[in-house]
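Entries read chain and fold; for instance:
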Amino acid sequence: MGARERAIGLLRRYRSDLMGIPWEDRRELFRLAGDGIDLCEWYGEEPLRFGREVLGEEYSEDVARFIGALSESEVVFGRSATGVGKTHGVGMAVVWHALCRPASQTWACAAPPEGNLVNILWPQIERRYHGHRYLWDARGWEMKTLELRRSWRKEDGIRGSDAERPMVIGVRIPQSGSPKQRESRFSGKHAKNLMFVVDEGDAVPEEVYRGIDGCMSGGRVRLVVTFNPREQCGPLWERERNGTARVVHLSALRHPNVVRGKDVFPGAVTRQITVRRIQEWTEPTTHRSGEDPTVFAVPEELIGVVATRSKGGMHPALGAGYRRIINHEFAYKVLGIYSPIGTFAQVFDRAYLVGWEERLDAGPGPLRVIETGEGLGGHCEVYEEPIERAEYVIAADPAEGKDPERSDYCEAIVLNAGTWAEAAHYWSRCDPHTFAGDLAALGTHYGGAELIVERNNHGATVIEALLHEHEYPSVYMDGDEEYGALTTVKSKAARVDGVRGMLTAMRRGAEKGIEFRSLRTIQQMMSFGRLGNHRMGGLYGANDDAVTCITMAHRVLADRVEYRRGRIELPDPMVLYGARR
C-alpha cells in the first residue's frame, strides 16, 4: 500500500475525530491523499468543519456563527463591528464554496474603491490558495489575477463552455458608467452551485444587488454579504427589516482579543482601542439598557481597564454600570448595530421618527387600500376619508415613469389642511399623464383639494395635463404666479429645515405638527440625508419622493399659518387660496 492509499485510509478511519490529529499531521495526510478525498461529499454542507479540519483555522465565536450559517441559509448577512474578522470569514466561505460544492461558481466583489477588492478581500482567497496548494493542484485549479479556474475532469461529464467551468472571479465595481452597466456586471450568471460574495456591502450600489437578485431564481444560489451598519436605509437594511436574510451579528465587545486582553487573533480589534472608544464615544448614565436603545452595560471583563487618550495621557479606569452612546460611530464600529442616535448624514431626528414607526407598526393601518387598476393607475393607502367642510392639500412629486420596475416613483401625499394629518398616500411608477389623471381623481375625492405639484422636469407635463386635459380647478401657484412649486437647492434646503424644526418642536411638545400615518413617509424620512456637494436625498439609493411631498406641503401650510398670524406677507392671495380656474 502506497503513501497515498495509507493517507486516504487514515483520514477515512478518523473522519469523525479529525481534530484529534495534530494539525501538521492532518495537513500532511490531506496533502498525500490528493483528490482521493471527496471534499464535496465530506464538507459540502459543513463549511465551518471544513475551515477547521482541512484549513486548520480557528475563528471567533461570532465569525464561526457567520460561517456556520452558510449551511443553513441561502442569504446570509454579517452585520459587523469593525476589525472583528468579517472579511477573514467571507474569504474562507469563498474557498469552501469553490472546493466543496460541485460545479460551483463564485463571484466576489467589494465596495469601491477597487482597493477593497484587490488589497483586502482577494488576498484572503489568495493566501488560502498558496497556503494549501496541494488541495487546489490535486483538483486542477489554477490562479490568475482576480480569478481561479478549474480544468475539466472526467467526473464533470461532457465538456461544456468555458462560462460553465468551476471558477472564482473577483468582480470590480466601476465607479464610472451608468447604473445599468454596473447591474450587467452581475447579471446572467448561472451554475449548479452559484454564490455571490459582497464585502463592505453597505457601500455597494443598489444596482449590483438588482443584478444578483436576477440570478437567484434557479439552482442552488447563495448571497453572502458583510457590512458595517452605518445607516438604516438601502437594500441591506430593507432585506434585514423584511426578514428576507439570515443576519449574523458580530460585536467587538465579544471578540476574544477584547474579552481576554491579548492578541488571540493578531491584527483584529484590540482591548485598548475598544476601551478608548467606550471612554470617548459614550458617557456614564443611570439608565438601564432595555429602557433606552442608546444605553448599554459595560462588559464585566472591561471593568477597571485603563486606556490611553487619543490626544495623549491616560483615561481613568473604566467603571462598572451603564453608559450612553454620544457618538454614532460607536454603534457600528464597536457594537455592530445601527446607530440609535442617527448619523451626521441623516437629516431628520431618527430617534423621534423611530417612535412614530413603532406606533404605526402597532396601529390598525390604513382604512382601506386602493390597488393599481382599481380606479387609479397606482397604489393608494387611505387613512382618512373626506370630512365635510374640511380642506385638503395634495403635494405631488412626478417622475418619468418609463420603466415600471426601476423608475423613480410618482408620489403624492394628501394632508388635512386643518389638522395636518396624513389622509392618504399614493405612489406609482406610472407616466406623467396617468399621474395627472390620478391626482385629479384624488383631488376631486377630497373635495377639490389644492394640488401642489413640483414643476421640475416632468412636473410641467403633469401641470399642463391637470389644467388643460382635466380642467382641474385648484392647482397651486407660487409667489411668481407660476403654477406648481419649483425645487432648487435653496428652496429644498429651506423646506427640509422647516420640517426639521417642526419635528424638534413636536418632540418638545411645543406644537402639534404633522400627524404621520404612513409608514412609507416615515421610512423615507429616516433614510433621507446629506449626499455631499450640498445635495440631499435618499441615502444609498433610497427613495425620497415622499420627503419631497411632505416638505412641500409643510412649507405651504406653515406659510399660511404665519400669514394668518400676521407674521409674513404673501405676495398674492392665490398663494393662500390656490389658483382656482
Observations:
- The first strand starts at residue 75 and ends at 80.
- Confidence is low (pLDDT under 50) at residues 567-581.
